[in-house]
Amino acid sequence: MMVVTNNPLVRERLPEEMNLLWVDGGYEDVIVAVRNRVHRGHRLLTHPLAGSVKPYETPYRTIFLSDEATDLHHPSLSVLEQAMALLNAFKGKAGGLNSLRTYRDEHLPDLQLVDYGLVETVIQQQPTMHQSLEQLLREE
Amino acid sequence: MKLELGKVFIEDVQFGESTHLDGRILVIDHAELLEAVSGDEHLWKIRVDLAHPGESVRITPVKDVIEPRVKVKGHGGIFPGMLSKVDTVGNGRTHAMKNVAVVTAGKVVGFQEGIIDMSGIGADYTPFSKTHNVVITAEPKAGIKPHDHEAALRTLGLKAAAYLGQAVKDVEPDEIKTYETLAPREAAQLYPELPRVGYVYMLQTQGLLHDTYVYGVDAKKIVPTIMYPTEIMDGAIVSGNCVSACDKNPTYVHLNNPIIEDLYEEHGKTLNFMGVIITNENVTLADKERSSNWTAKLTEFLGLDGAIVSQEGFGNPDTDLIMNCRKIEEKGIKTVIVTDEYAGRDGASQSLADADPKANAVITNGNANEVIVLPPMNRLIGTTAYVDSCAGGFDGSLRSDGSIEVEIQAITGATNETGFVHLSADAY
Amino acid sequence: MAKKKVVHYLNQFFAGIGGEEKADMPPELREGVIGPGMALNTALGEEAEIVATIVCGDSYFNENPEISKQKILEMIKPFEPDLFLAGPAFNAGRYGVACATVAWLVQEELKIPALTGMYIENPGADLFRKAVYIVETGNSAATMRKAVPGMVSLAKKLLHGEPIGLPAEEGYIPRGIRRNVFKEERGSRRAVNMLLAKLKGDDYQTEYAMPDFDRVPPADAVGDLSHLKIALVTSGGIVPKTNPDRVESSSASKFGKYSIEGVEDLTAEEYETAHGGYDPVYANEDPDRVMPLDVLRDMEREGIIGHIHEFFYSTVGNGTSVGNSRAFGIRIGKELREAGVDAVLLTST
Question: Origin, by domain of life (chain C) (predicted)?
Fold first, then answer.
């Protein structure tokens, strides 16, 4: 399982055996990094949008991909493109998510925690689950 | 399973000597209420305030809203698995204190949610401006983790609602409604000529501040299952969801789920209401696939002709909603989905994060991005220190005169996706 | 009270200057009212009058969009109009695109309310329905009399800054703008009602229409190509030099069918593109870049594909209406099927 994140807390708490892809950037950069890998045949294991958190409410995002790359996985691409369309819709005429930003710098540690909290179960299940998670999607 | 729901209509709430009902006035013993809810090691400085409809009061950040209820007859107690034992509830008799709500408020993490204005334009957008609110705020002790803080606040609210509910236990209700759902075989025989209809109830279950509990079980750990609707009226489903104030389901909405009420209203007349399928909204796509496969399977298992599917939350759950809709339709079962929109401030953007041509019957509860200006209020319960950072708030939204420019997504219950309110959106 | 000022836009045809042969006329300013402007002006009555009319050839506008836009804006500005009207364009594709483009520009750049009218399948409607008010009209100029009252009634509302109602009430093509409203019944009750209607098979109106899914599911992979007959079809406008069938550079009303029997390579000497919607330099240098006959001939020789169909089909997808495109597709498909073609390589631009 490949973990694409820009959240320092996820990086810190991620078990060593998991494949980390660190993104030095914002929410959209994570989505773009994931898209690029989906284009190369990796599959989305988690939904690109975070819980009910809007893309302008947090700078952090963590998304899980399959380690294995095969042919382009259309369901993954489709979910991702929908998420990107929504992201772009939120940018509006100003052209950036920043114009809608709702958080302050002092909240960054909390936002890291919320992002981590949304993927915590996936990380914890990892020793028993990650194989099957990838297999589940592969056998579609 | 049969539940008599007795409603006691309250006209005012006051502090006084002992907690009791004085005619239609709820009198609350302040000290006793504090005593009843305290005891959590994580919280201190617990405060109780009252807010009445029409008053110039703003409550924020709101965490949960709960209706006081009490079990009078039948198995178990209110909020099973949370406050009471895990007996199966939903039968016998329950009393509900109408026009009163417990509101918990306070900061859990940096980004904060939920405004209830008791008057002004904001009051039109929240259903909880019409209730007499008993607002409980509490400070976390130093070093408490957000998980524990959220759990402590959640329990505090449930305890307060259960405590106040006791006041209507021995009161003759103003109105008694009987709700009955039979087991599928008998139910199908009861009205063989009517279409069999079910309700697919999606629960937000993604992790920290995004959780919902069923009989005390964290619902992200369940596979979809079937419930009698009356179980939910007894508090079998409890909110731990703090994110997306406008379209999360506070515990109050679970207790008074309007889709369940309105399906019962037609039960035996135009349709045969067979029961509720609860399902979750997951993080992984494999879990989403599994849960939606199960909901579709259960609609078939119940022999349904039609189903209403309601969503909770924004974005990621759109995918669960569309998967549920598509798979249920593929079973040949007619569906209506209930959602809200994020179409941007100008209303011109794509409204949902997912779509499917099979979703051809949609109820919308409005565009959550609509901007309104909330006028200043004379009294504030909680703090506006987080208004800039609440969902839908944005830089500079708190003006110097105390008015707030926000998207309605900051308002508790504004676009609730069970159709609890009257807001909708038209295409221009 | 002084009458409010309106500027009107027309193409060369409706201005009475001429047909296709005059379609390359650059924008011109005419004082007063011309052609359909008369009826609009009369209907505007005491409240407003058309003070000037801008006329521009359809081809000129489509082929010189930047200059046209700039000139037209410069012509409108000095009048400081209270409203801008364009068309109606009915089902004229290039005219519709021009009307909607100019209306949008006036609205965005000059901050003046603008309005146009056209048939719902006009490509201009598809491109600009979200951005500007487009009154829905019939598909030909014969419906002018019906179109005028609708346009004028919406025009008056825009002139007075009155709130604009729902598309069905006002007669404009839905823009897809979502606006909140409190409904009589709560959402749950509406959901129950909708489900009952759906179960009975009665009509019901969804409150949120899913995006338009005019999608064709991709066909299954054909697998082994070595025994199949493959045809080439393009909307990139590749035609034999001098464009013998005069396939239009935009808003195509036809497609061409050409033999490539014995042709190994599409050379710059013998082929070109008729397309007016993209820079043709690279396509004209080597038309294989749009429709790769050279590579397919190699594959034919190597036995990767069976053989290439004797004819290729070509049209232009530049402002061509959905209706025309659909009709072309059906006719081409039928001919290919009759010719025993197994698979088609469809290239765009």
Answer: Bacteria
Question: B136 CA to chain A: closest CA distance, Å?
Answer: 23
Inter-chain residue contact B419 with C188, CB threshold 8 Å: yes
Q: Which of residues 271-290 of B touch C (CB under 8 A)?
A: 271
| C130 vs B: CB within 8 A | yes
The pLDDT value given to residue C251: 72
In 3-state terms, what secondary structure has residue B178? Answer: strand
Phi/psi at B42 (nearest 5 deg)?
Answer: -90, -15
Residue B242 annotated in active site: yes
**Searching chain B, which residue's CA lies closest to the CA of residue A115?**
B208
Q: Tell me the two tokens of residue B251.
A: 């515990």
pLDDT in tens, C127-159: 899 899 999 999 899 999 999 999 999 999 999
C284 — pLDDT class (breaks 50, 70, 90): very high
pLDDT digits (tens, 9 = 90+) for B310-348: 999 988 999 999 999 999 999 999 999 999 999 888 888
Q: What mean pLDDT, rounded, does chain C reach?
A: 92
More confident residue, B339 or B349: B339
Interface of A with B in 101-140 (CB under 8 A): 101-104, 106-111, 113-114, 116-122, 133, 136-137
Rounded Cα gap, residues C37 and C53, in angstroms:
8
Residue B424 domain flag:
no
Q: Quote the pLDDT of residue B391.
A: 46
Residues of B in contact with A102 (CB under 8 A): 111, 388-395
pLDDT, tens digit, 9 for 90 and up, residues C332-343: 999 999 999 999
Nearest CA in chain C to B425: C180
d(Cα C300, Cα C312) in Å, to the nearest integer?
16
Q: Using alpha carbons, select from C18, C15, C112 the residue that is nearest to residue C55.
A: C15
Q: Which domains does chain C have, with CATH numbers?
A: 4-170 (3.40.50.2300), 229-347 (no CATH)
For chain A of 140 residues, list the mean pLDDT of each consecutive stretch of 10. Answer: 94 89 93 93 92 86 92 88 83 60 80 91 66 53
Partner C contacted by B303 (CB < 8 A): no
CA dist B328 and B304 (Å) reads 10
Identify the residue with better confidence: A87 or B202.
B202
Choosing from B242, B246, B325, B390, which is the catalytic residue?
B242
Say if CB B343 and CB B351 are below 8 A apart: yes
Tokens 């690279």 belong to residue: C282
d(CA C247, CA C113): 37
Please tell me the predicted confidence (pLDDT) of residue C327.
Answer: 81
Taking residues B223-237, report their average pLDDT.
98
Enter the tokens of residue A48. Answer: 């690109």
Question: What is the predicted pLDDT for the residue at B208?
Answer: 84
Per mean pLDDT, which range of A60-69, B139-148, B241-250 is the poorest?
B139-148
**Residue ranges covered by each domain of chain A:** 2-138
**Domain assignment of residue B404, given as a range:** 2-410
Chain C hits for B266, Cβ within 8 Å: 192, 196
Is residue B419, in this structure, part of any structural domain at all?
Answer: no
Chain C residues lying within 8 Å of B361, measured CB to CB? 194-195, 198, 204, 206
B46 inside domain: yes
E-only strand ranges, C27-169: 28-31, 48-56, 83-86, 114-118, 133-136
CB contact under 8 A, A46 and B313: no
In a domain? residue B396: yes
Q: Which residues contact A26 (CB under 8 A, 6 or more apart)?
A: A6, A59, A97
| DSSP-assigned states of every residue in C333-346 | HHHHHHTT--EEEE
Quick check: A20 and A85 in contact, CB under 8 A?
no
Look at chain B and report how many structural domains it folds into.
1
